């Protein structure tokens, strides 16, 4: 069970997030703070595994709290929860586990908790802070922001560009598909069609027989090229757990 802290200067936001966190069986004790100063008092007094921090709070901001947490002997994982998209780059510079946009959706929060659990496991295994996630700079509406590569479900070729599809949006980047195929292979991305590169961890269903082989990633059903079918089979077999002989 994970002990968490919520810090937000708006009480309704604290209560709503506490309710959502409480629905997840992995969450144990939930501490609440409505100011940065109160959050510090709780963190110095109580063992907390993860902190969900609003960025814009009077006095000590969420970023200030994150910097303070880096000096703790037992450093909690931390997630920023905010309505402000512009702070993502600074958040990940501070080694945040995740960056949630308000209003928080239940399924998105579930993924964030999973990342917290994974980061705790990595920290225990290495006796160090968890590795930072791979970030990608994208442009949306004239604004550059950072997204996590492991949020990308599949990539679609669009001429000299590539469109990165996540669960929440899609982003156009000026990188040829062939470059992404080579650079992201070790991260579990595999070419399934001349127009598509998919992230194997996000694949939910495959149908490789018949006249029209397809693969399902999130809500998208994508075609599989006959030429690339053998390579996809090999990658799927390599990712399939096997019983010990």
Automatic annotation (TrEMBL):
Keywords: Phosphoprotein. The modification 4-aspartylphosphate is found at residue 54. SMART domains: LytTR (SM00850), REC (SM00448). The keyword Phosphoprotein applies. InterPro entries: CheY-like_superfamily, LytR-like, LytTR_DNA-bd_dom, Sig_transdc_resp-reg_receiver. PROSITE patterns: HTH_LYTTR (PS50930), RESPONSE_REGULATORY (PS50110). GO terms for molecular function: DNA binding; phosphorelay response regulator activity. Residues 136-238 form the HTH LytTR-type domain. It comes from the Bacteria. SUPFAM superfamilies: CheY-like (SSF52172). Residues 3-117 form the Response regulatory domain. Pfam families: LytTR (PF04397), Response_reg (PF00072). The keyword Phosphoprotein applies. This is Response regulator.
